[in-house]
Amino acid sequence: MSYTPLVITKQSDLDTALATIQKGAMFAIDTEFLREKTYYPQLCLIQIAGNGIHFAIDPLIKELDFSALWALLADESIVKVFHAGRQDIEIFYHLTGTVPQNIFDSQIAAMVCGLGDQVGYDKLVQHFLGKVIDKSSRFTDWSKRPLSDKQISYALDDVIHLEKIYPLLCEQLANENKLDWIADEAKIVSALDTYAIDPWQIYKRIKVRTNKQIVLNRLKHLAAFRETECQKRDLPRGRFLKDETLMDLAATAPKTPEAVGKIRGLSNQKNGWLTGQIIATIKKADDSDKASWPELPARTKTERAPAAVLEMLRVLLKHVCEDSAVAPRLIASAHDLERLALSDDGDQQVLQGWRYEVFGKKALAMKAGKIGMALDKGEMRFFDL
Q: Which of 160, 258, 287, 331 is most buried when burial is the number of CB atoms within 10 A of its CB?
């Protein structure tokens, strides 16, 4: 490499480096972390590049004071460039209770520029800089010390290249009049609600197999109990209680330790603390006010989107994405299209902001019979009716 890898382990070096970064208009930032055995990600390395310098910070040095870094992340006058930054931002949210401000996510920008769905960092580097990243250190255990020069170089490359790519992405976005699109997406990435976890809403992430409201309510209470305990103990959800176990408990509602012990994954919990908590949680759920029970998701056949409408929307989406050079997934998912086929309600994401201008407006016009489509010499053409 053309640079000497640098890992900051002293407070004076950290203060000097951050003071230099603060004088610039932007910096690229990335993290290395582990989370296989913990609820919260274990931060192992922080990499930064900006204003002519690049460095890594060792967060495992307990004596380091990171208050200056937290203030820098909160500074709205400086752009923070991440790539697929939600997990990195989640770490900073957990450590500080706030979200970095003035965020630019290069993966989202690349999708807006038509480079594909969920563009990988290596593809981004190759596209803009013509370089191939050495991936031989990607499976590093970043919690182990010491880290080798090769490992540090690999980690620093993530921000060194990103700092160079940022102005190139901005130039392309400006040329295509898409800077406002990125601003809209940044609001979502920067929102506290994106990272704040409400234990009482976790049940919605579990694949539900029931048509009984009482079972869904038990699942809600059990999932909230699991979430709270996992946060306290810093344990992954699956290591404490698996989703399948929660569903079995919600469906069978065991009332004795012996009954709990018959549930898959709980055979060794016949008389433990967890058994008592499970029984109490289920009882609390069943005794709760029915007005607070969650509604069952709609599953009737009448809620199924008309196939013809859905197919027309898919064709329209493909056309506008090719025309605007933007990744289809960024505009609308399969679920978004199904919802749009069923309803014109304006609270849908595809009917707001730049998505409405690019796709939603045409979709509503097509549903209303105001525009049609036809093939013209092998190409799709849309016309007013």
A: 331
